[in-house]
Each structure stands twice: as structure tokens, then as C-alpha cells.
């Protein structure tokens, strides 16, 4: 029995559990160190203005750069950063470096607006508006060249808590967009209450166009609804010419995805923007 008890007690710390909590602990510490040492890197993905074929906005996407040089994608550390609150200092670093990068580009004559993903945890922290204001001030970036992306699900679930903050941020002259739109169970009426400028249609509604005619209908409906509310629409995850063609026919304003360009380093983006021979995406 003693043995059995012992085993049962031990079962609580099953190898699997202890490994995973150890992993968790190790990852948290590594993340903390990485923040202190600023071992992150931003990649930038262009958004194509479907009507004019121009590029004005790029989305900043964070990567964790390991000593080996390997880049860890955000989905494998943002959730932990949010859980531990580390997203707050990390998010501040991201915002500051995106703003100063955009300011550099604009100084060099490249007219680029940067869109930065903001975690709900950051918005809920008091002082978020000051953080944004300070990032603009320190970098010297004009507010209209900054866009902030907030996910639909977060905003929906914390509507009372975020409206005032978002309103104040928008009053600074910053553009606000709702990310991953269509995945957050919105009652559409809430959109009217929100101080937003842009809807980003989630990739899941784009990836099966034209195979899935329901997705085509959903994407079309989102575009029409956004326009009725005087919002701009970005389609995320555009991977084919056919998808771009479809979006153009439906009057979608902007397209982002591998068909246009993958996320790339700041230097590569600069080359991309200056490349006059860059593929023209014009579709009829
Ligand atoms: P998101 O904001 O919806 O960003 C779009 C994601 O889709 C990016 O993944 C991008 O690389 C990917 N993507 C773009 N075009 C295509 C395409 O044509 N096909 C496919 N399959 N994927 C495409 P990434 O960079 O791995 O970022 C994933 C998520 O991590 C982001 O989703 C965002 O929610 C979060 N994230 C990224 N950077 C930040 C950040 O700086 N702060 C915060 N809080 N979250 C971030
Ligand atoms: Mg985003
Ligand atoms: Mg998205
Ligand atoms: Mg996403």
C-alpha cells in the first residue's frame, strides 16, 4: 500500500506534468532574459492597395531571435508572454521599435505606415495611452503613420474596458483596426460603438476561396458591411491570384498575404518598396 500511495503521490508530479511545468518555467525565464536583452526582431509584411496597386501600410510581426540565429514564431511565445504579463514590456519594445523604424523609412522618403499588433493585456493596463503617445513622441513618427491592431475576440469580450482607451488612442490620430475579424462571435451592432477605421478579414475566410462558396459569401458580406459603416477592409492570408481577383471584384480595399509578399526584414522591405520592377499585381 505504501508503495501504491507513494506512486499515487508521485502521480501528481507525473513525468509528463513535471516536464511540462519545467518547460514552462524555463521558457518563462528565457523570455524574461530575451526581453532584457531585446532579442526580438520585427518582420514587416506589406498590404497591397487593391485599387491602385500601391503599398502604404506594412504590418510589424515579432520574432524571437535565439542565440543560434533561429527565429521563433510569435504563436509559440505570445500566449506565454500574455499569461505572465511579460507582454507588457515586450509590447512596449515592439511598439517603440516599429515606430522608430517607420520614422527612419519616412526620413528616407519612403512613405510607410506601420501596423502594430497590440495584446488586450496591454490595452487593459492603465497608462497604455501614454505608452502610445510616448512612442510617437520619442520616435517623431506622425500619428497617422501608426496603426494599432486589436483582435476582435478580445475587444468583444472586454468591450466596456476598451472603448474609452481606444477612443483616446484614436484621438491621438492613430488608426485602429480589428484583427482576425469574423472569428469573434461579434454582434455586429457593437461595431458601431467602436472607434475603429479598419477591419481585417480573418485568413480562414480567405484561404478556401474560390473552392468554398460559403467563404466567398462571408467575405463579400464583411466587405459590404464594412463599407456601409465607412470602414476600410483588409483581407488577410491572400495566397493566390484568384483570391486577389475575387477581392478586387468585391471592392476589398487592401490585401495582405504570401501572394503579395511574405513578412520580411526591414532592409528587405526597403528594397521591396524601392524595386520599380516589382511584380505588378494588377488584375482585371
Ligand atoms: P496576425 O496579426 O493575424 O498576423 C498575420 C499572420 O499571418 C502572421 O503570422 C503572418 O506571417 C501570417 N500570414 C500572412 N500572410 C499569410 C498567408 O498568405 N498565408 C498564411 N498561411 N499565413 C500568412 P505570424 O507572424 O506568425 O504571427 C502570428 C500571430 O502572432 C499574429 O497574427 C498576431 O496575432 C501575433 N503577433 C505577431 N506579432 C505580434 C506582436 O508584435 N504583438 C502581439 N501582441 N502579437 C503579435
Ligand atoms: Mg495582425
Ligand atoms: Mg490576423
Ligand atoms: Mg491571428
TrEMBL record:
The keyword Transmembrane helix applies. One of its GO terms (molecular function) is cyclic-guanylate-specific phosphodiesterase activity. Residues 24-277 form the EAL domain. GO terms for biological process: cellular response to nitric oxide. It comes from the Bacteria. Keywords: c-di-GMP, Membrane, Signal, Transmembrane, Transmembrane helix. This is cyclic-guanylate-specific phosphodiesterase. It comes from Pontibacterium sinense. The chain holds residues 864 to 1147 of 1147 of the full protein.
